[in-house]
Amino acid sequence: MRVKKLAHRIEEHYAYHGVRIKLQLLLAENNGERLTFLVCLKPGTKINLIFERASDIQMALHIPLFQPFKDGLNICLVVSKNSATQNSLLQMLKSRAFYQSRDWLPIAIGYNMRQEMIFADLAKMPHVMYAGSTNSGKSMGLICLILSLIVKQPVKNINLLIFDVGANSLGIFSDIPYLSYPIVKEYEEGVYVIKKLVEEMERRIRVSQDELRNLPALVCVIDEYVSFINNISDKKQSKMIADDISNLIRRGRHAKIHFVISTQDPIKNNMKVDVGNITTRMAFKCAKVQNSIAILGEKGAEKLSGKGALLMKSNDYSDPMYIQGAFISPDEIAQLVNFIKEKVYDPDSKFTIPEFELLELPEQVEEDKRKMCDKDKEMAQIIIWILSRDKVSASQIMTQFAMGNRAYDIVKQLYEMELIAEKFANQQRKVLPQSVESVPSKVMEFLQGQGYTEDMVSDAISNKNGG
Questions:
Q1: Angle of helix 235-251 versus helix 187-206 axis, rounded to 10
Q2: What is the pTM of this model?
Q3: How far apart are CA 411 and CA 120, in angstroms?
Q4: Do residues 111 and 324 touch, judged by C-beta distance below 8 A?
Q5: In this model, does residue 18 exceed pLDDT 70?
Q6: How far is CA 146 from the centre of its chain?
Q7: Phi and psi for 158 in degrees, rounded to 5?
Q8: CA-CA distance, 68 to 208, in Å (whole number)?
């Protein structure tokens, strides 16, 4: 009777949103705590509305787990007063399905709504992209992927390149023998490693199939990808690296090279690479509907609830499949990683990239220093110029110093230096220092380092000629 009453309430709430359905109980588990219904559509009801209105009805009924999902041609609905579902990674890695899998690079993803374990083969993907907002479960997804790969295969079969720039979510893997290069923590190192990976791809493409078959698969994992690609200071170099990554994604499958990219904001303009060849997508809860559309091609990920919940779309699953992502505790990770570190392996069977510092060319170092000095000199000239004005704008800087859109970045830097006021409408920004004493100390130190004396700064301010 209680089940019928609940089903009736769900039907009524859907009807309030213009969705006319009838629920039929398929399965009751855990003494009726978890129920699975078959959703029968009445004439005129659109299937997509069942999914779009689910979060509204979940909130109205205060049901911790309320998730419609597709089961072949059927639409089902799972309901539970417990939000937690089966999500143990260790149970997946110990399962017969994983242990006896004939997939070359099997990865444990999680559990579907029928509590079935979901695995996939990275070798067939051959690349995958994870997206989702902060604390949605992306990093845990990457951890589960890496652990799946190194538990199943020996070092001679798989090597890893891990980018953890600006974060520390993957630091637990810093000493594992599978790494072809220490975990990348700096942007310059990342540029270097990508270049070396392109060289290895070109080499592998030229070898025979028999030789390639005996080489380890290379899996490059980049956490917070957008942050990495957008923080390469040299814009020309950033464009070159984006082109290199696009090349690796497009041709890497012919060289047993796989990319795993994770980002909070998968909008095309932010990615700067052609991600069309990444056909496997893992969408955790997204902050914006546009992010869901960017990664899945449709809405849905913005309405996910619960940490670790994701929608997976791939060549095998054209419709996004709801999965409760696998989870492993920090203690379990540490124990498993320590076990993996004790594995015996042949160093000669591993692909390695020499340390960045050992190969850095003196000429390049000097060139980088020269460019930095030129930029500092230019910035000092701009600061002295704006101090002689009451107001300033990016367009005025463009004209005065013969530059393009880079002037907008300089205006942002001037604001961060507390030299100009924040933006108000489309008006020019007020120059803040009215005396040499009001110039921030760090700015004064910078100017003095570029050869400007306190008197020169004072003269610039006293000679203001208006905006």
A1: 40
A2: 0.71
A3: 48
A4: yes
A5: yes
A6: 15
A7: -150, 135
A8: 49
Query: Structure tokens of 357?
Result: 């510092």
The tokens for 142 are 């990457």
Distance (Å, rounded) from C-alpha 8 to C-alpha 14?
10
If you write DSSP's letter for every residue of 309-356 in order, what string do you get?
A: EEEEE-SS-SSPEEEEE-B--HHHHHHHHHHHHT----GGGS-----H
CB 460 within 8 A of CB 439: no
Residue 420 tokens, joined: 């100009």
Nearest-angstrom CA–CA distance, 338 and 69: 38
pLDDT band at 33 (very low <50, low <70, confident <90, very high): confident
Mean pLDDT of 256-267: 92
Task: State residue 85 phi and psi, 5-degree precision.
Answer: -125, 175
Among 155, 90, 124, which residue's Cα sits nearest to residue 316? 124
Amino acid at 208: S
DSSP string, 138-175: HHHHHHHHHHHHHHHS-TTTEEEEEE-TT--TTGGGTT
Nearest CA to 144 out of 128, 133, 125 is that of 128
H/E stretch holding 448: helix 441-449
Report residue 341 CA to chain centroid gap.
Answer: 27
Cα separation, 144 vs 152, in Å, equals 12
Helices (H), 207-311: 209-213, 225-230, 235-251, 268-271, 289-296
Contact 368, 445 (CB under 8 A): no
- Beta strand pairing call for 391-392 and 429-430: antiparallel
Distance CA 20, CA 15 (A): 5
Pairing of strands 128-131, 117-121: unpaired
- The answer to whether 352 and 197 have CB atoms below 8 angstroms apart is no
Burial class (CB in 10 A: 0-12, 13-18, 19+), 39: buried
User: pLDDT digits over 426-461, tens only?
Assistant: 788 999 999 988 999 889 988 988 888 888 999 889
